[in-house]
Amino acid sequence: MSTPYAGQAPPPPGGATATAGVPDSYFTESRKGEINELRTLLRAFATERDPQRKRDIIKKVIAYMTLGIDVSRLFSEMMMAIETRDLVIKKMVYLYLTNYARTHPDLAQMCTNTLQKDCGNEDPMVRGLALRALCGLNLPQMVEYISEPLRRALTDGHAYVRKTGVMGILKLYHLDPDGFHEANFVDILYDMLRDPDASVITNCIIVLNEVMQKSPNGGMAINRAIMLHLLNRIHEFNEFAKVQVLELVPRYIPANEDEGFQIMNLLDPVLRTSSSGAVVATVRAFLSLSDTLDDGSEAMKRQIVARVKAPLVTQISSGSSEIMYTLLKHVDTLTTICPGVFDDEYRQFYVRYNEPTHVKYLKVAILPRMANPDTAPDIVSELAEMVHDRNTKLSRAAVVSMGRIACSGNGGAGAAESIARRLVELMDSGTDHIASEAATALTLMVRKEPSIKTLVAPPLVRSLKYIAESSGKASTIILLGECGELVTEAPYALEKLIDTYDDIHDVNIKIALLTSTVRLFFMRPPEVQRMLGRLLAVATDDVSSQDLHDRALMYYRMLQSGADPHTLERVVRTSTVVAQGVSFAEEDDSELRKELMEEFNTLSIIYGKPSVNFIAPEFQVKYKKMPDEHPLAPGETGSFVAPPVAPVPAASIPVVSNDVDLLGFGDAEPMAAPAPMASNNLTLSASASMTGGEYQSQWGSVSDADATVSDVPLRALPSSTDEIENVLAAVNIMTMASGELPNEFKFFLYAKDSSSGATIMIQTNVDKSSPSDACMIATIKIGGPCLDPTGLAEQVIQIMRMQLS
Amino acid sequence: MISNFFVLSPRGDTILAKQYRVDNLKQSAHERSHVEALFRKIKFWDDFATSEAEEAQAEKARQDNGKMGDAPPVFLMPDGLTYFHVKRNGLIFGASTARNVSPNTVVELLSTIARIFKDYCGLLSEEALRKNFILCYELLDEMIDFGYPQVTRTENLKSFVYNEPIVVDHVANTGTMINPKTASANAVHKPVISSVHENGRKSGLNNNQKNEIFVDILERLNVLFSNNGYVLNSTIDGCIQMKSYLAGNPELRVALNEDLSIGKDSRYNGVAVDDMNFNDCVNLSEFDSSRTISFIPPDGEFIVLNYRITGEFNTPFRIFPSIEETEPNKIEIVVLIRAEMPNNHFGANVSVEIPVPHCTTSASCSLVSAPGTGHAHAELVATEGKIVWTMKKFPGGGEQTMRAKVSLSKPCTTAIRREIGPINMCFEIPMYNVSNLQVRYLRVAENMVGYTPYRWVRYVTQSSSYVCRV
């Protein structure tokens, strides 16, 4: 395995003094020899006085290790070296240890004592290092030795140790998920979000997100207090940590519009930083917030995209080609959701000479999206230049993009015609790949702009002769069928192909030929009749393609059946013209785009497909917006404060005090506050009545997507259904039906809003399996006239909570 | 976030590798072979390999181009993991992941790691990394824990690092420079911490303790000319880049042109940039009023700000090509270049590439140079299918002409004529910038007696994509 490396072995690093002059053959000779030599050196380690030489010996072992040579046999000797004050040596031994622990668990266990001892060292650096090594051994049997030092580390006085400890928790989680949950680390981590050190907080977010990935929340639970706390401190975080905080924002639902705007103001300065990761994370946060602002209107989105445009373009032009690639993919997505916003920057998307090919292709694909009547002429002539690029893929892409502009209709009056002229010229140019691609682009264009047929028709017969590439040939044949009335020689051009049918190997050409001949037949029956007969005869015998065979057979039977030939005419001569402004049905990807927007700033954007397609199920994370409700009345404990441009020390922001109760763990008055503000204005009619049939049909008429699901904690598990029914009847929530199953109660409830007259239907069930924390899950649908169904549903929930909790 | 990290040499050998997660049990056993597969994929990336139907095209393109294109920095490998890579100085910095991560963040992380390695090793090369691999692992341990970025700033890392870098002599780069911003004089090729020489001797302490700061105002030009000399597109990507070796990290103040305006709509007489972004450390409180920024410079190389200018500016060189068919099988290409910057400036290391048709058999080039031009040479490089014309020095205000008589193996058609061009020009103009953006002053904010740092300020204009259509 390691042979390829041995031949070109570099001088062992650091060992230049010791091994100078040793020839290359040093590495290819027997391994045993050199390991023994290292062993002798290591034995002398203890007696060696010069610290530099001591380092060199260890360094040499590590050098072999990284070259892929197995030096695990030196394990016990290496462990002797762990007792040292020299941190350089200690770090190297730790590196060795973590590398081989998995393959030599029993040996690794021997050094736990030393590591545990180091975890109590007076130097915080040593404590941190030892802890990291201990957690990094990756041995399930070590869990019992890890827990204690880990717990101590979390309350360490030094941020480095705390930060390492938090990461250690994550490692522990992967070693022993069950033990992890018993140890109650999650609560500790939530508490530690208040840590004064930003790097500790970041690691807490990371760990919480990962260990709670599979929870219903799809990550760390967030509420207003947590967001408030983190976002007010965002400017203390470094660039990568910022991203961690920013990635929480899309999962957060602001309490109201004002709060959404406050958050945006707070994050705005991030757009000015030079970190592209943070900038794109901010863009995603903004887009997500915009869903909740101004009812998620299109105008709001456009405003946001317009705001982030300049920073993104600057990132693109100042970054490396790699950053450019990932950013362009994101800009590509943004131009599809907000067409037009990037238009005036179109010159930034011109291909540059020295760019890698993947960036060039992307730019050529983005350019058509920036076409409007002002920019289109420039863009088209730029693309026309690129058509002659030496890179054939680029020149094809340029042709495709020109076609796109014409089909989009964004180019203004006459754009399609002038593009068609250019493409016709290209189709006639004699360069095979360009001509072929141009023909294909034109087949799409005639569906949008039938008027260009007069331009397309003249060179078709000539092109058919010259174009060799099969896709181009098929496209030319299709065009001949489309423009049959305008090309006098069309039947004869096709007849030549029919006569040489057996020489055609590409199925697409055959299918195109069949389609076009049938179409021509209805335009000019006397000329085409006989050749169509010949074609159908050979095509129905052709078994190379099912599709071709079946199609030919269908045409044949429809013609042969003697029925009105106009039936077939109606089938083959259906207008394929698609109105301007309407996308081709086969290109309509609004569903996909919506899914992709949900996963903005992830790999999904790069690959252009939702994550389910390329991420293994165990690593999939679902996004859930939180919190469902805002227990705090707005402005009660604090607000998002937009800081001045410069980062401000935390102390000067008055709202963040260290005893903010982030999760409401302590007995939380805020949690108790919710009900009053809600239920006041809802009165339920006392005379509501409904039949079972009405109930069922109304329930069915409201889609499940519009239902509100919430939970109502119960004081205790009810003994019978009556208990709940009576309590709810007191507030005019009636029962349609109820029942008791072995493990749950079910209730079908309804009520009527006396002001609007809307019907409120509630289906609930109470799980009997956990009597200690009994909870009712309620699904609410609102039928009849109601302006704000969700609001109404929430009010009903408030009432139920008051009654039952 | 990332499952493993590795650095590959230009030949594909693993220089550094670290695994953080075992996401795929099958993978751990063959981890190395996957990295090898990745290397092959990057090296022999095939733009056409996406669909089998295009196999024939690929075959043809392979004959035409030789090179199949460049591997994008992010792609899926057959093992189901996503692999990221960035190329720096010929080295490949890579990482893989099984999760749906933010691609920008990972690419940025890899770039950051490369930059930090460079800060600590002095320069980025295979030899430097091999010599300092222990130091690199030490840095890596602090930069990434369990796949997540931790400490990523050069100065913050200092307190965690105990190894001393071994300085290697500056050698020619092992590969093409991806980021031209890294080009710098040798003075800045020293590590940010005290180092030892290869022979184990400590490098002179005063050498590192010297209070100096290097400031580069770098502008990269993207210009596109039509064949009649008209500018079709022009942008400047500029940045102010610094490398600080200042003792005690004092706060610095940098003042830019007072008439600087930002935003597309603000076109006054002064310097107008479309947009600007700043390093995290920059304090902008005085920027709006006096165009002054202050910051505590981080150690190592960093970019203080980036800016972008589109629209008209005085292009330093103008290119005038002309093509004539002298005989059926012969064409004559004449390229005239005029340097339009003041004559106390000059273009250095100028090279001009003129692609010629595939069917070219030979070309004879003759030059007419202005006085003061350094060594100039032009010839046909048949393997690349272009005429390459180089000049050591191109004085401002001067004019250069290259006349090439090209013989073809078949008569010239329009299609063959189209194969000529576009002409690409590469150059660097020292101590000159096109935008007029200037550093009015750079001073230490607090008044410290006897603290006199050396301030080296350079202006450099480089070509990024300087192209003329024919």
TrEMBL record, chain A:
Cellular component GO terms held in the UniProt record: clathrin adaptor complex; endomembrane system
Upper classification of the organism: Eukaryota, Sar, Stramenopiles, Ochrophyta, Bacillariophyta
Family designation: Belongs to the adaptor complexes large subunit family.
GO biological process: intracellular protein transport; vesicle-mediated transport
Protein name from the UniProt record: Beta-adaptin appendage C-terminal subdomain domain-containing protein
Stretches the record annotates as Disordered: 1-20
Claim: Magnesium is one of the keywords in the record: no
Keywords of this entry: Membrane, Protein transport, Transport
Main location per the UniProt record: membrane
Localization per Swiss-Prot or TrEMBL: Endomembrane system
Location of the Beta-adaptin appendage C-terminal subdomain domain: 684-805
Keyword Cell wall biogenesis/degradation among UniProt keywords: no
Organism: Phaeodactylum tricornutum (strain CCAP 1055/1)
Pfam families: Adaptin_N, B2-adapt-app_C
PANTHER family associated with the record: ADAPTOR COMPLEX SUBUNIT BETA FAMILY MEMBER
UniProtKB/TrEMBL annotation, chain B:
Residue spans crossing the bilayer: none
Classification via InterPro entries: Adaptor_comp_med_subunit, AP2_Mu_C_sf, Clathrin_mu, Clathrin_mu_CS, Longin-like_dom_sf, MHD
UniProt-annotated location(s): Endomembrane system
Domain MHD span(s) in chain numbering: 210-469
Domain of life assignment: Eukaryota
Keywords: Membrane, Protein transport, Transport
Gene3D superfamilies found in the cross-reference section: 3.30.450.60, Mu homology domain, subdomain B
Gene Ontology terms: cellular component: clathrin adaptor complex; endomembrane system
PANTHER family registered for this protein in UniProt: AP COMPLEX SUBUNIT MU
Family indicated by similarity: Belongs to the adaptor complexes medium subunit family.
Annotated protein name in UniProt: MHD domain-containing protein
Species annotation: Phaeodactylum tricornutum (strain CCAP 1055/1)
Record gene name: AP4mu
